[in-house]
Structures are given as structure tokens and as C-alpha cells.
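re: that complex we talked abt at group meeting.

here r the seqs, copy pasted straight from the sheet so there may be weird spacing, ignore it
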Amino acid sequence: MGVAFDSIGFKASLCDGCGDCMTACSKAKGGASRISIVPGAKAGTFETAICRQCGDPKCVQVCPSGALDKDNGNGIIGWDASKCVDCLLCTAGCAYGGIAVDETVARVAKCDQCDGDPACVKVCPTGALEFRKAGTIFNEYGGKEDLFVPGLSGCQGCNSELIMRHAMRKIGRNSVLATPPGCIPGMGSVGYNGKTGTKVPVFHPLLTNTASMLSGIRRYYDRIGRKDIVVMALAGDGGTSDCGFHAVSGAAERGEKVLYVCVDNEGYMNTGMQRSGTTPYGSWTSTTPVGEHMKGKTQDAKNLPLIMTAHKCRYVATASTGYMEDLYEKLDRAIEASFEGFSYLHIYSPCPTGWRIPASKVIEACRMSVDSNFNPLWEYTNTRGLRFTHSPDNAYPITEYVKMIGKYRHLSPDQLAHIQAKVDEQVALLKLMAAESPPPQAAHRAPAGSSTPAGAESSQPARREIARN
Amino acid sequence: MPEAKYLLVGSSHAALEALRAIRLVDPDGSMAMLTKDERLPYSPTILPYVVSGRSGPDKVLLRDPAFFAANACTYVPNAQAVSLDAKARAVTLANGEVWRYQSLLVASGAQPAIPPVKGLDGVTYHVLRTLADAEGLRAAMGAAKSAVVLGAGLVGLHAAENLAEAGLKVSVVEMQDHVLPGYFDAKASTRIEEAFTKHGVDLKLRRKVVEVSGPAARVTLDDGNVLEADLLLVATGVRPVTDWLEGSGVAVDKGVVVDEAMRTNIDGVWAAGDVAQATDFASGKPALIGIIPTAVEQGKIAGQGMAGDSYRKDYAGGLPVNTYRFFGRVALSIGRAAATEGVEAVETDSGAYRRLVLEGNRLVGYASVDEPFDVGIMGELIRRRIDLTECKDAFLAWPVETGRRLMSEQWR
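got the structure back, here u go
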């Protein structure tokens, strides 16, 4: 297994040129800033020069003194002040201005990512700078056992398969998995010919009773003292928001200690792309066709995760594979919460086949769905309320998102305006809820408690070590 | 008879890059690196800093034995190649050993070019190309009181500064009008010359040496003046080390002639670095551009070709680059920074000196004194022939910021 590295990301669309990053860098490093923010092509836009910690670093290759070297442990191109003779040839190697002369000391200076905690990122008020930890995630989980068999028969570019494999790698073998009818069992995770496609106990409930069955399993494990099992569902949006909703709602209301992951591809995709309760307004599906009279779905989608917050679940969050670090952090918290009460994770999953997106553009669609506020990322707990985990400010217009997706190709300006209005309305509501957080103690008492034997306010320590592999 | 699938003759930047490029594609193929030097790899560029004491002979080595072990490359020091039999695919060393190969990289570098000056071969003089030269010069410098340096190129000026800083009385003889010819225009060079003069170095520009005699060094110039010194350094440029290729069939002009893939005219033989005569980016004509960035680029391309890497790209031509420090100050240049014919040159001469050279609203050269800029960014603007029409005012006013902006945009 190779080694991957974390990196500082710059999103030009969010940068307002405040320069706080440069001040922070300069202060942290005691000299000139190693990140430079410069005016962009249009007024009010900005660009950056910072070391990319290249995999094929020209600065290192042209250094005549051996003062620069890429550390294969953390990926940082380090500079050895005692070997450097200040010849500046490295500045001729770098095409990005990532290593430049610090005129205060007349020597070169470059970013070293502050030992994995970059000062510039911490002070960025707009989120333009991000420290992207996908490398750490890969290093930590890349070598762990994949709990699905190879060769699941998902479509090319299937995002749901990605979600399944990531989630189960993280959760590990100590789990019992329910996969109600949908793409997830359909692609082979429940298996064929008496063998499962999953390396943990897996079962195939009805669309209607997933959460109820999980409640029973959880209670049995509690009774026999096995408090280390994650009892969970990987369910589609149809099985969660429509046919199975009464069971989900009931289990959440009772505070059942279950991890319920809804993989939302906005319809019944494996049976031929029929509309569901979470299919967005205007979408083409096989039951909301586009023709002379009909122009796709005429109703708005229900916001299922928001509905789950009304159940006062232990944990509710939205996530996207476009923001893997966020997804992994939420998986952590969702697993933790599932030992104390109902834990609901809603992961958006663009479907290349049903939505008409090229397989190679699925992750871009994921990112744009978040960056346009179509799918805002947030999390909720019953004690701290709701908070955004990705800033909803400076969002792209919704047109940037829908133009990537075939199922919206027919949209009229009126329909687009409607979608934009609904997106804005949804963000306004979430902001209102987020503004209330953290809530005053009295207003948000812990729920009355779970009816399962161990109780919601269990004194059992939450299990930390989940994966054995 | 020792053999290697990949035989690299030379051990500096070009050969090291070839090694890296080969190992990315072929982790196992047998490889050997032969060098006439007795040390592990080092860069000739570092030598002035060894003379000054800023660096030391042990600090300058670019790779250690563990690196060669990890890369399965046999490192053979004290191995001077004396002949090549291209038909038999064999290289003979001075000690009689014969190395067979499948693919050969000629990266034997350059050596000091000694001018045909009367009497020069009868006196003791220094050159500065190897670590041994640097150690010798440093030792001689301690006992000397005065020095004459022939040549005001980079090596000559670096050494002259070192000698002057060590307290010697130094004269530099250069036949051109200015120091560092080619890299800088007259105005930039004048600033550098003034600094040398201010530090007590006597610059004899537009002067030729007609005769040198002993005992230490008595240098007679073409104007009749005579310079007496305890120490003589000859730094009048370098020439590719190609004598060992005589009779091999490998085509040699000023250097080893290579195509855009760094192949020579002989099957299975590549060349890269100071020894190779590749093309000049600006003119597209054959040129010797003996600097590290071109050695690195050529070595990589040669290595990729030797290992059959399908991602190999043709050599786009070399760009002259110079990052020069003198007496704590900085002078930088890239591309046709001294060009005057058919170009638009925008100069700033108050405080720091800056010279931007454009052709058809595209950057072709950039030089500065006392004002650092991102040489690599300007190099990319030149190489990619970025049209600056849209942002020309901003570029001329704030070249560094605008350059960073342009590359940041390109990167996305």
C-alpha cells in the first residue's frame, strides 16, 4: 500500500483577499509569508502561490547542494538551512512561486504545512483554504479489509458502491448489516447461491421493516451483553423515505440504538429509475417523464434528514463523497452515537446511470451539489442542535450544478428559478436552526430515554475501538 | 566482463535524473553509474561555496551509498571512460575494464576550456570544475596574497568574490565588454561590476591575455599592462568531455549531437547534460546550455527513452537561467534577458534594476538586480508562450504578482 499525503487546498471562488493567511504564516514562521495571495484577473478575485509539495519536485532536482528533499513519510519538501548555499536555483525550478526569496533574511522560504496543522488554514475566514486530509484517510484505512467482495455488479462509476465500501471499511467486522431492496443488495452485497457478498452478517429485510428488524437485533445483542456490535442499515432513499419510513420514524422515536445510513440517489434506481419522495423537483425519472406536457417531477423533494432532526435523534448528519474528510468524521460520530440512541446518516449519492452523468464526473457532481447548496452539509445532535460542517456562504448558482446532470437537461428558466428558490429557502431554514446552536440548556433537555434495556443514558462507556482488522 | 542494462557515464544532475526516470518504469533492470571522480555525486555548481568555506566537501554530496543500494545501481567511482565501441556495446575504462551495456547514457559533462595563451602550460594555474579543484584552490588561497582570474563568467566571478573576501588582491581579465555576457544586458552588468570594484576587485574588461609566465603568475595583457599574482585561476568557460567518443561513430559537433529525445545518431546511445548539444528554446537551433535545469530536463528525457517510458515528451529546448548572488546581493535572469533586436524591453532602473523583454506581447526574457522574482514562473510563461495582451499593464507594473496569478490560474 502506497503512502498518500495531505495537502492545503485553495478554492479561489471563496477567497476575499483579506490576507489573514499571510499574516498568520508570517507570524508562525517569523519572516515572510510562504503563502502569497495575489489579485486575480477580475477585480475582487484572488489567486495564490504556495508550495504544492510536488510528487516530482523540480526544486529538489535542480538543487546543487542537496538542501531540498521530499520526505516520503509526510510528503513535505523540506529545506535544510545548513546545507543551503542561497544560490536560488530552486526558485528557477518551481513553476508556482512555491519557493521564493524571503527578503527579510535573503534566503529562500517555503511552506512546510506547519507539521500537519497549517496556521494559514486555521485563520481563513471564508473556507478558501482547506487542509485536505484525504491522504491521512487513505493511509489509515487503505490497508484495512474491504468488507465487500470484489466484483459487485454496480454500474460503472457507482457512487453508492463507493459509500458502501468506505463505510464498512471504517465500521469494521463487528457489525450486523441490513440492506433492504435497492441498488445495494441488488449489486450483490447480499450474495448469490447461498453465499453473501459481504464479509459481515448481512440480511435482506423487506423495504418496509428494516428499522424494526434492526431494533430487535439490537435489543437481543443488548440482552446477551454484546454491546460492541454496530447494528446498522445501508438503505436507499426509497426504502427510507417512502416504504420504510414508518419503521424508521418509529425506531427513531423510540431511541433504538441503531446506525441507519441512507444512501440517497434520489429515486428507485435499480428497478428502472422511478421517482421517490426524495427525487428533486424537475427531475426526469421513468415515472416523471419529459415530453410535450410533462417536464419531470412536479413536486419538491422531502428533506428527510431535516425530518429526522424533528425526531430528536442522537445524531443526524448529511454527507457526500465529494468531501471525504467530512464523511469520515461523521461516520465516527454516527457510530459513536449509535451505541446511545438512533443515529441517522444521510449520504448523497449521484447515480451515473439514472441521472445521466458520465462515470468520470460523479465526484465532481458530488462536490458541486455541496458547493451550490443543493445538498448542504451539516450535522445535528440532540444536545448541541444543528451546525454546518461546510460553509453555505458564497455558493455557486444552482445552474452550475444542474448543467452537469442529464436528468435536468430539459429544465426551463421557470423551473430553474423554482429550484434556486427552494435551495435558498432550505439554506435559510438551516441557517435559522444553526443560529440557535448551541441551544440554551433548558430548552434542549436530553430526550426522555430509550426504551431498550440499556437505556439511552447508559453508563456503558461508548466503544471506541470498532474495527478489528 | 561487467555489464548493465543501463550504463550511465557521469554522476551529476543529468545522470541522476536519468536514474530516477529509469527506475520509475523499470525497477529491476541492472544499472551502473560510472564516474571519473573519486567521490559520490556532487554538483559543479556547488564548488564556489566549497572554496569560500560556506559549504564543505562532505556536505555537498547529493546521494549516499544507501540511495544506490535502494535503487539497485552500482556506483563505480574512479572509472574514467576512455573509449566506446558502439557495435559491441562496450565502454572501456582507463584501468582497462570493459563495461557492456544495452542502453548507454553519455553524461560525461564538461571540463575547463583552457585558452591557447602563450606560456600558460608552463605555469601552475587553477581551474574550478571538481571537488579536488575546489579543495586545491581553497588551500592555495590561504597562502596567497594576490590572484588573477581569467574570465568573468559565473565561475570566474564567484571565485573572484571568494578570493577578495579572503583578503586577496584580485584582478579579473575578461575580453568582453561586460561581466556575465549573455545573461545580462549592459545596465545590469554594470551594477554587478560596480559591486566588484567597490569590494576592491580590479576588473580588466575588453582585455586579452597575450602571455603568461612564471614563477607564480605574471600575466601580460594586450594593452601592455602586466599583472603579478601568487595565484592564477583560469575560468574561461568549459567544453564538453567528448574525447572518449572519438572513433565510436557518435556524432560530435560542439557537444554530442542529440535529437528531441536525447538520442545520439547511434542506436542505444543517449546523451544529456553539459556534454549534449541539444536545441535552444528561443531559436530552435543547436546549442550548448550547460546549466542544471537543462541537465535535469535532458537527463529525465534520456532516462525515459532508455527505459521505454511511454510518457516521454520531446525536449522543448533549453532556456538560459541564471540565479547569481554577489556580495549578498542578487541578480537573476532567464531567457533572452539581454536581447535588444526586434523585442520590446521595459526597464526599471530606479532602486532595483528590472528588465522585461517581450516579443508580440509574450515574455521572452527577464532579468533583475537587487529585486528577486519567481524565476520558475517566468520560465513557464516563456515556455508556454503565454499571451499577455489581456494583462500587459498589470504584468509590466507588478510582474511578480501577475506571474503568480497566471500560474495559479494555469494550475487549476
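couple things i noticed - Chain A is about 30% helix and 15% strand. Residues 439-469 of chain A have pLDDT under 50 and may be disordered.
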